[in-house]
Design goal:
This protein is an all-alpha fold. Helices cover 30% and strands 0% of the residues. The longest helix has 17 residues. The protein is extended and about 55 Å long. The protein starts with 7 loop residues before the first helix and ends in a 20-residue tail after the last helix.
């Protein structure tokens, strides 16, 4: 049975949850000005991509943090 004949098959699928025990800090400062610039570009990109949303926060660190709540 394909999803074309059974559209409910798509509704039942949920993506796997990411791990919740990720490290959040390594205690090391930014390594160079290039790293800081790259971080600022990523932050700015997210802010522009989600400009129509008001329920998010962007910040910078050398790690990526994800929360599903």
């Amino acid at each position: 049975m394909t999803t074309e004949t059974n559209p409910a098959a798509i509704v039942d699928w949920e993506p796997p949850m990411p791990p919740t025990d990720l490290i959040f800090d390594d205690g090391e400062p930014l390594e160079s000005n290039r790293h800081r610039i790259a971080m600022n570009v990523l932050i700015r990109s997210l802010q522009q991509a989600w400009a129509d949303c008001n329920d998010f926060f962007t910040g910078g660190n050398m790690f990526i943090y994800y929360s599903s709540t």
